[in-house]
Amino acid sequence: MEDVIALLPDHVANQIAAGEVVQRPASVVKELLENAIDAQATRIQLIIKEAGKQLIQVVDNGLGMSPTDARLAFERHATSKIKQSDDLFALHTKGFRGEALASIAAVAQVEMHTKRSEDELATKIKIGGGEIKKQDLVVAPVGTSMSVSNLFFNVPARRNFLKSNAVELRHIIDEFHRVSIAHPEITFSMLQGGTELFDLPAGNLRRRLTHIFGSKLDDKLVPVEEQTTVSGIRGFVLKPEAAKRSRGMQFFFVNNRFVKSSFLHHAIMTAYDGLLHEGCYPGYFLFFELEPHTIDINIHPTKTEVKFENEQSLFAILRSAVKHSLGMFQVAPTLDFDRDPNLDVSYDQVDHKVEPPKIEVDRDFNPFQEKATHSFSSKISPQWESLYQEIGSTDSAEMSLIGALDSNPSDATQKIFQLMNRYLVSSTGAALLLIDQERAHERVLYELFLSNITHASTSSQQLLFPIKIELNSLQKAFYNDYASLLTEVGFCLGELKEDHVEVVGIPSVCSENKAVRVFEDLFESLSNEQPEDTFSQTDLVAKSMARTLSIKRGKRLETEEQQQLINDLFACKETQLSPYNRQIFVSLTKEELEKKFN
After folding, report:
1. Quick one: which of 137, 188, 306, 339 has the most CB atoms within 10 Å?
2. CATH assignment of 10-203?
3. How would you label 350-382 residue by residue, b for 16+ Cβ within 10 Å and e otherwise?
4. pLDDT digits over 254-269, tens only?
5. pLDDT tens across 238-255, in order?
6. What is the CATH number of domain 210-328?
7. pTM, entire model
8. Contacting residues for 102 by C-beta, under 8 A, at least 6 apart
9. CATH class of 398-598
């Protein structure tokens, strides 16, 4: 029998290794940016074409390389960071395994220009499919320029699995954010197809965050700083009112390296306990400084997962530091031992309007009229009678609901009730319906917006004073792609200015004070999800607007509003599920209710 095991050719081994390191264009961006930082660059430019499929170029003013080092840099396991195994646990740099450039060159066409300050000429190297095609001396500035063209040109199956340009660009921007936030002392810029998306001057962390996410973020930042023998923690968390329904602005950095950690996130959530609305997540930008030997960052190919030596201590320190910052800046409630807990207002009731008590005056009352005397067995006085009426009325809703199960479903006098300002209770035949008012209204608005876009039949209300919507660099890119859809759902938009756009008209179902929130939530949705096609884009816009404008839980509805919402819901094409695939209502039959009391 012949031998079946053979050594793989180098170019095949490199392509297999590239599958671990280079998963998509964003992977190339991450590796090249980190190499530029390790080269001590103070200015880094990222140039993208066709979302990285056609070109990824990183230009820096770092140290550069000699001709020998430039050629060796593309060999597998060639690195300047590690000399012995102990160096793995004393790392202060980004890349160290020596696989990045070799893996990238195996699946793309690469051209590098690099020059040190002491050299007269730069080194130019061209590589295609892992093979060095040419090496020359050329004129170039100090630093390195790395161009990666036609990614996966020799692995068409991998290229076919890439997503649309919008999705791949979203991943590239995510990597750009992570690297640029970790190093605010470096000047970064990013161009996509000749359009500048980001221009981030060197500065401090607060300035870097406001340049990326907009000036409005500045007022929402709460500084966090703690120094212990286990770890140093610094950075910012966002105020509770800035919490979002998605996990967009959540960044952990360990020794300036972006990481993901579920247990650290749990520590943050514990610190915010009681301060967030249901289903909302806090934002944070936190940096941990730990001794390199106490962490292992080589447990995952992308190096985004880290194993900590003192997990429990780090959890307690982080939770305490965030709680202290929220309390110190008067974001969290302070302890007051003289406070009467009976006077506390629950978090869900903070924004509710308090209605003044109604005063009823008996205009027939005459203080000079002789008081009538009544025997013990006489008729109960009006005051006592009203008291009995109030006591009896507490069960009237329940009794009416039970009676509704036996009533004729076509009875026009059948009533609807609102429970806990959250659910609508109605009956149909011999079943009781409990309807989530927020999800029901989401479904109604969602189908309304889809219909408006499909049939181009929408109504707008003009504003007396235009609303100014501030946009950061990323939001401007989103706006250009979605302006037409926003117009179709009822927004009248002015010309896009340098950092803002004016809204001169809004949909009829949108109140003026919610217009800004509609845009904020839409951009937040786009930051976390990039649709593949036109239908998906329409669906995302309709879902985002429906969620923002829907009636929220905790809002009291008048009887007419309750009836109208139920009528609108059952006029929809889909009545069971909300746009986010959550159940809208549950039904209880009379038999199911009776079983509860057996």
Report:
1. 188
2. 3.30.565.10
3. eeeeeeeeeeeeeeeeeeeeeeeeeeeeeeeee
4. 999 999 888 899 999 9
5. 999 888 877 878 999 999
6. 3.30.230.10
7. 0.74
8. 14, 17, 74, 75, 76, 78, 130
9. alpha beta
